[in-house]
Amino acid sequence: MVGLRGAGFIRGQGAVLTVILPLVLAGCGAKEAEQAQVRPVRVAPVTFKDAHAARSFTGTIVARTEVQAGFRVGGRIAARMVEVGDRVKPGQTLARLDPTDLELSLKAAEARLAQAEAQAVQTAADLKRYTPLLASGTVSQAQFDRVKAASDAAAAQKREASSTLSIARNQRAYGSLTLDQGGVITAVLADAGQMVGDGQTVLRIATDLGREVAIDVAEGDLARLSVGGTASVALWADGDIALAGTIREITPVADPASRTFRLRVTLPADAPDAVRLGMTARVSFPEADAAALALLPSSALFHQGDRPAVWVLAPSKDRVLLRPVEVAAFRPDGVAVKAGVKEGELVVTAGAHRLDANLPVRVWDGGLP
């Protein structure tokens, strides 16, 4: 009887465990499911500053004007007097062509002019003799007209020969390559003994008309820049050199490959000699609008209907609040926000499209879950 009662007790205990154990397991599963719904979020603090003023652009020191120098006549280069890096003065001879053919052309033009002058003298004398004969009726009007036409033609040929001689003299002078502007030789594209055509580039010269910085800016930054605006220029090679520049030119059309606009920033005329062509420079522009902006990652932006918004971590640190914001500009490095968030607030920067106001969250510390 005792054994039977013991067995019954054990069976009763088993029945109780059978009922309680699923309830306990169900409670543990619910707790784990509740914990699994807490979503980690990555956040970043909001910091207002003059985001535009911090923008800088990298450019290259270039000459304001660069001349592609070549002979105005073709021929064989007899001598080249300059090398790359030489500084030249206005009117200095840079290269010279073989003058043989030019001298022969000049002598031929002189001979043609002498012949035309002699012909003009002869026909003028004939016309002078025929004039009184026409008045006396010794010669006919037709004979006089032929003599006069010959005299007029000879005078025209003389003028033509004189112009041809002037051209030949100019061409002989063109055998010496000179420039009206001084500068620095940046490239040599032809050497002595080489045949060149008229207008073919022989030397490339950066003139002394000034130095500039050429930079490329995105279309999002172009709206706040204009010709005549000021800029600050610093050299990468020498951080102690700081120059004030002025925007001289903005190309009206974007580059088809990079979709950027080329700007030319003029450097002051008294720039030190350390500012050399080809150096890398950093150009920054002061922002006229002093309104502070908060630069947020593009991944933080969320849209509430047709309005931009961001998720802000609540003071309790376990919920997020959807906050509409006013975007000042979309930039390559993020979104510039003008209003809607406060200094020091934590904004969700990853997974903004998977959040909900009722969803528990926790700040991700960077570790594994």
Automatic annotation (TrEMBL):
Domain CusB-like beta-barrel, chain residue ranges per copy: 213-286
GO molecular function terms attached to this record: efflux transmembrane transporter activity
Keyword hit for Ribosomal protein: no
SUPFAM superfamilies registered for this protein in UniProt: HlyD-like secretion proteins (SSF111369)
Domain of life: Bacteria
Residue ranges that the Swiss-Prot or TrEMBL entry lists as coiled coil: none
Keywords of the record: Plasmid
One GO CC term, this protein: efflux pump complex
NCBIfam families, sorted: RND_mfp
Family (UniProt): Belongs to the membrane fusion protein (MFP) (TC 8.A.1) family.
Name of this chain's protein: Efflux RND transporter periplasmic adaptor subunit
